[in-house]
């Protein structure tokens, strides 16, 4: 883990760490600090952020940015039952490193075959996000499933991440889904849907 220690200029303060990362597609970092210091740390960040119009955002706004950036979330968009190559996380696996658990499967898929489903972006017609687990249809058969969906304020439409069968995952492919009693159209899209603002 690439973390850089940060020590407050005030003597006697606890050591904190920062790690450059992005959970939303925007430039960012995680701060790791002792629980006892969090309220004071939040107050100091709030005060120092005023000069650059920084503001706290809630979980809903963070989730919208995450999905617009096409970033999957563990426990929502993938689990231990998914292969990294299905999730689009090829950057997180080594093809040259020595032995590790699952290496043979990963290498076999890369060199000889393919995965049968892949996490894709989806542009959905309508006004509202759709439920997790909603089935996707192509050629009158089930070809995938929604894992995350939000209504994107910047795109002014619902978008989603979902697994799509290999025969239907090309960007621009038209699919359909049932939302309540209504059939809606969806189109496979590249991710990120939007780049950083």
Top keywords for this entry?
alpha+beta; 31% strand; 6-stranded antiparallel beta barrel; 3-stranded antiparallel sheet; flat; 197 residues
Concise description?
The chain has 197 residues and is α+β, with helices and mostly antiparallel strands. It has 4 helices and 9 strands, in the order βββααααββββββ.
- Span from first to last CA? 27 Å
Instruction: Tell me the Rg in angstroms.
Output: 20 Å
The total count of strands amounts to 9
Largest sheet: 6 strands, antiparallel, barrel
Architecture of the largest domain, CATH level 2?
Beta Barrel
Number of helices, where a helix is a run of at least 4 consecutive DSSP H or I residues: 4
Would you write up a description of this structure?
The protein contains four helices and nine strands. The two termini are 27 Å apart. Helices cover 18% and strands 31% of the residues. A six-stranded antiparallel barrel has the order 4-7-6-5-8-9. The chain has helices at 38-49, 59-68, 84-87, 103-112; strands at 4-7, 15-20, 29-32, 117-124, 135-138, 141-152, 157-165, 174-179, 182-189. A hairpin with a 4-residue loop joins strand 6 (141-152) and strand 7 (157-165). The longest helix has 12 residues, at 38-49. The protein folds into two domains: 4-50, no CATH class; 66-89 and 116-189, Beta Barrel (Elongation Factor Tu (Ef-tu), domain 3). With 197 residues, the protein is of the alpha+beta class.
């Amino acid at each position: 883990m690439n973390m850089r220690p940060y020590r407050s200029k005030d003597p006697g303060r606890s050591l904190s760490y920062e790690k450059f990362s992005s959970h939303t597609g925007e430039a960012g970092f995680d701060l790791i600090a002792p629980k006892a210091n969090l309220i004071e740390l939040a107050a100091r960040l709030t005060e120092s952020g005023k000069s650059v119009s920084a503001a706290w955002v809630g979980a809903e706004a963070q989730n919208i940015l995450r999905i617009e950036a096409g970033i999957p979330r563990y426990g929502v968009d993938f689990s231990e039952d998914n292969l990294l190559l299905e999730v689009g996380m090829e950057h997180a696996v080594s093809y040259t490193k020595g032995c590790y658990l699952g290496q043979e499967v990963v290498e076999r898929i890369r060199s000889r075959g393919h995965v049968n489903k892949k996490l894709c972006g989806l542009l959905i017609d309508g006004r509202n996000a759709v439920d997790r687990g909603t089935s996707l249809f192509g050629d009158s058969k089930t070809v995938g499933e929604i894992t995350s969906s939000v209504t994107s304020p910047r795109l002014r439409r619902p978008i989603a991440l979902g697994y799509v069968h290999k025969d239907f995952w090309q960007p621009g492919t038209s699919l359909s889904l049932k939302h309540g009693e209504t059939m809606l159209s969806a189109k496979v899209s590249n991710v990120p849907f939007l780049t950083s603002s």
